[in-house]
Amino acid sequence: QVQLVESGGGLVQPGGSLRLSCAASGFSFSTQTINWVRQATGKGPEWVSTISWVGDRTTYADSVKGRFTISRDNVKRTAFLQMNSLKSEDTALYYCDTVFRGVRLRGQGTQVTVSS
After folding, report:
1. CA distance 87 to 97
2. Each residue's pLDDT tens digit, 55-89
């Protein structure tokens, strides 16, 4: 089954950290660019970060640059998003996605809530 499954979200205080995971199955993960996207309640999707299939190129939204780090382990077929110095405005549903054979694949997401 072709799917992406996110995990690692939760409730964290401002200034805290979380590490999200995106586990892939059913397709050639190691040849796919992977994106992290988030969507806050009542708002549209916001692109967060992208990593190339080799992992040698990464890009970030200005809102997370310097605080978030995207990475991947092609052997484990998993992508990660390390989130540090979290702020309340980072609260959102985070999901990973990719385009495989012209079809956008997206996981169900993992909720991140930053609150004291």
Report:
1. 23
2. 899 999 999 999 999 999 999 999 999 999 999 99
